[in-house]
Amino acid sequence: MKKIITILQARYSSTRLPGKVLFPILGQPMLIQQINRIKNSTLHGQIVIATSTHYEDEKIVNCCKENGITYYCGKLDDVLDRFYQAASLYQPDHIVRLTGDCPLIDPQIIDEVIQTHLDGNFDYTTNALKPTYPDGLDVEIFKFSALKKAWIEATLNSDREHVTPYIYRNNDQFNIGHLYNDIDLSHLRWTVDWQIDFDLIKRIFENLFPYNPRFTFSDILQFIESNPELKTINTCHTRNEGLQKSLQEDQLISRA
């Protein structure tokens, strides 16, 4: 049986919405709500929160301690190194990568991405590279060997900050797998980068969680269909804004 761990990266010092991972939703920090959803997956393995040694991230460490969650503190901006060092402590065969701004992550989708990865013996598998799911349901899984190769060879700041671009950009070196939804719903935005994003996610939790703590991707879609104004409430923001900003900064550095 292959050893799998799930590493969820989280930091308190978000540039767009500081402290968002600890914003309360129904009396629990958003981070804990997300972890509880991940635990409903059957294939996720050990869950590790990868935060940084920055003084502000001590708040995340305290949250983990209070809730019995395993954590690792590494470099703030070199998240690739943070992932590699955290994973090295467990020597897994595969690592699931999630981010702390996606509290609606669906455990069934996590399992489907993992199973696709294992069945195809891929080096890297995701449902986000050619997105068909709402932004905020992104799942990545990769072999430890792929992570190690990226850790050794990646030099661009964007590669170090966003962990996996080196892997999927070099698809001649890595075998890439994909999971697609039957319907393209990539226009929907269920991630938290801005206050309007959090307001939407909080409303979804408040309306669905009391009746079914394990509410699913389909339950959210049904709720949004019943409240169509929610479909576009936050679509003024684009997908992967942080990555695009990092890529632009790399281009400026290369021209200097």
TrEMBL record:
The lineage of its organism: Bacteria, Pseudomonadati, Pseudomonadota, Gammaproteobacteria, Legionellales. SUPFAM superfamilies: Nucleotide-diphospho-sugar transferases. It comes from the Bacteria. PANTHER family: 3-DEOXY-MANNO-OCTULOSONATE CYTIDYLYLTRANSFERASE (PTHR42866), SPORE COAT POLYSACCHARIDE BIOSYNTHESIS PROTEIN SPSF (PTHR42866:SF1). GO terms for molecular function: transferase activity. InterPro entries: Cytidylyl_trans (IPR003329), Nucleotide-diphossugar_trans (IPR029044). Keywords: Capsid protein, Transferase, Virion. The keyword Transcription regulation does not apply. Pfam families: CTP_transf_3. One of its GO terms (cellular component) is cytosol. This is Glycosyltransferase family protein.
